[in-house]
Amino acid sequence: MAFRQALQLAACGLAGGSAAVLFSAVAVGKPRGGGDADTRAAEPPAWTAARPGPGVWDSNWDRREPLSLINLKKRNVESGEEELASRLDHYKAKATRHIFLIRHSQYNVDGSLEKDRTLTPLGREQAELTGLRLASLGLKFNKIVHSSMTRAVETTDIISKHLPGVSRVSTDLLREGAPIEPDPPVSHWKPEAVQYYEDGARIEAAFRNYIHRADAKQEEDSYEIFICHANVIRYIVCRALQFPPEGWLRLSLNNGSITHLVIRPNGRVALRTLGDTGFMPPDKITRS
């Protein structure tokens, strides 16, 4: 490939990559117009303005597309394409990341404080079943990252018993919240605009921090478990697949369910399973 062509590809990649500049706090928190008094047209979410046309995959969605990481202005004219190929290879991912997103088990929704919202007896059974299912896959899991909320911590405690030796890390980024104003809206759940503004920024930060192609230094495929909450998982799935994130509430996840995302070295993302609870008896399945 001639250097001029490489430069053109870089320009396209950088332009297309602007779709990932979504910061949900910018797109959310805008109250919807109501009644005849407000005749202004609804503003489109900020992330859609820079998104490629329909059917166009943004290959630089995670800002790790090799060509976008090279400063072409510093190219050595004498070494030319050979040097460019070498530098590209230095930034290319080699391994596939398998992301397992687990929703916490059923919990006591009537707890007055967050620490009181512990797992129910059924929820503990669900976590046992999820742990058994993950163990049965025969995979070498690299780590467990979990939300710091009580119901996620307790779910992790139970699942971890079935995966001895797998390290675990707690994070506030994966705590439950309101990621972005849903479209269409729902009548039974209307958080204040400030909640979208604050939670949305944090959940988007979780997406950017944890969901991306493998580092170029990673030699082997990895299998990582993230134990968190329905809203967080649904938002992450929409963002990873480059679907409109406002549609997150159209997805439904059972307690203790397994969602499996695959991120290839070239940045392509596939959804293997969404909210799988086929390993649970029907009478153990809930969505509370």
Helix-strand blueprint:
Layout: H1 3-16, H2 24-27, H3 46-49, H4 80-91, E1 97-103, H5 121-136, E2 143-147, H6 150-161, E3 167-171, H7 193-210, E4 222-228, H8 230-240, E5 258-263, E6 269-276
Parallel strand pairs: 1-4, 2-3, 2-4
Antiparallel strand pairs: 1-5, 5-6
Fill in the keyword field for this structure.
single chain; about 290 residues; alpha/beta; six-stranded mixed beta sheet
Large-scale geometry = globular
Tally of helical segments: 8
Strand content: 5-15%
Mean pLDDT: 84
Helix content: 25-40%
Explained architecture:
The protein is globular, with a radius of gyration of 21 Å. A 6-stranded mixed β-sheet has the order 3-2-4-1-5-6, sandwiched between helices. With 288 residues, it is α/β, with parallel strands linked by helices. The chain has helices at 3-16, 24-27, 46-49, 80-91, 121-136, 150-161, 193-210, 230-240, and strands at residues 97-103, 143-147, 167-171, 222-228, 258-263, 269-276. A hairpin with a 5-residue loop joins strand 5 and strand 6. 32% of the residues lie in helices and 13% in strands. It contains 8 helices and 6 strands; from the N terminus they run H-H-H-H-E-H-E-H-E-H-E-H-E-E. Residues 1-49 have low confidence and may be disordered. Helix 5 crosses helix 6 (150-161).
